Amino acid sequence: MTADTVGGVWSYAVELARALDKRGVGVALATMGALLTPEQRRQIRDIPSLTLHESDWRLEWMQQSSDDVQRAGEWLLEIEREEQPQLVHLNQFSFGALPFAAPTLLVAHSCVLSWWRAVHGEAAPPVWNSYRAKVAKGLAGAGRVAAPTGAMLRSLRENYGHGRAGLVLGNGRSSAQYRPAAKQPFILAAGRFWDGAKNLEALQAVAPGLAWPIHVAGSTSQPDGGTVMPAGVECLGELAPEALAARMASAAIYALPARYEPFGLSVLEAGLSGCALVLGDIPSLREVWGSAAVYVAANDHDALRRALSRLIERPAERTRLGAAARMRALHFSPDRMADAYLAAYASLHPGFVAAEAKELLCVS
């Protein structure tokens, strides 16, 4: 299984590897993007069957990454020859075009073209044409393609002309780590301040008019080396998973007025923590959360302010929404995720037996 270490795919891959380990499926995890942090190394220490292959190759969406992606592909083929896996699970697009001996499942977690359109309101400029071609080639070469939501799958058709049926395989998070505690009067959000997809600037805009403070966890360091200095909200910086879980446990409301969020692991963690959810009104989040959240248009600051003020002023409604979010979140458990992935693996390799999970495998 491939994974990058600089985004949510890392948390997803660790959660899935741990759940697969409990079912007797060992994972050789090939990481790239950056070397693991001490915290990331700690997170995988309790997965007995996991074998780590570590690198810091640039990811396909990064600037000047072509040579790194090529070398990373050669490295992955070497790992396959060494490990002799039954199946190769790819969480990056370009590697779907590689001549692996084992069948391949490619999972599309997000992509530049769909991100660009959601954030900028227009198609990505020609500078991304090479990226578009590589992604299309990877999608065409993979044995099967999956995504965490049907909305993300549809974006593959719209942006890359990928016409084959794909699998919807939802993410999962452990309810043992994310649990409700006594709720306190503050609003929580999490995400990189510089990422326009998260739309955290909307929270900065409405914060002065709210009776409760807004706390935001996440990096303020930009990829180019600059720093974003948020105003109007309490900046918590990057928190370790346990510290963020503690904040979520006590937060009464979790707000993420996102423009782009193909699934949203932070929202899932907040839902497990019993937070009332106020989310961006986009198809992927509605698909995942249904009636268990309040939705606001990304650019409608007045609607965001009204939604947050309403929940601040109405504790019964806040409590009801928090309970609904937790009930919905419990559906996305690591066990269900592992069962669905085992069914997907079995469709590619008969060695994976997951008869009980076949009803969990959705085709779009």
Structure notes:
With 364 residues, this protein is an alpha/beta fold. It folds into two domains: 2-172 and 333-363, Rossmann fold (3-Layer(aba) Sandwich); 184-330, Rossmann fold (3-Layer(aba) Sandwich), CATH 3.40.50.2000. The chain is 41% helix and 15% strand. The chain contains 13 helices and 14 strands. The chain has helices at 8-22, 38-44, 66-83, 112-120, 129-141, 150-160, 200-206, 241-250, 265-272, 283-289, 301-313, 315-330, 334-348; strands at residues 2-4, 28-32, 51-54, 88-90, 104-107, 144-147, 167-168, 184-190, 214-217, 234-237, 251-256, 276-280, 294-296, 362-363. The strands form three sheets. A six-stranded parallel beta sheet has the order 10-9-8-11-12-13, with helices on both faces. It has a five-stranded mixed beta sheet with strand order 4-5-6-7-14. β11, α9 (265-272) and β12 (276-280) form a beta-alpha-beta unit. α1 packs across α13 and α7 crosses α11. The two termini are 23 Å apart. The relative contact order is 0.12. Mean pLDDT is 93; it is low at 354-364.
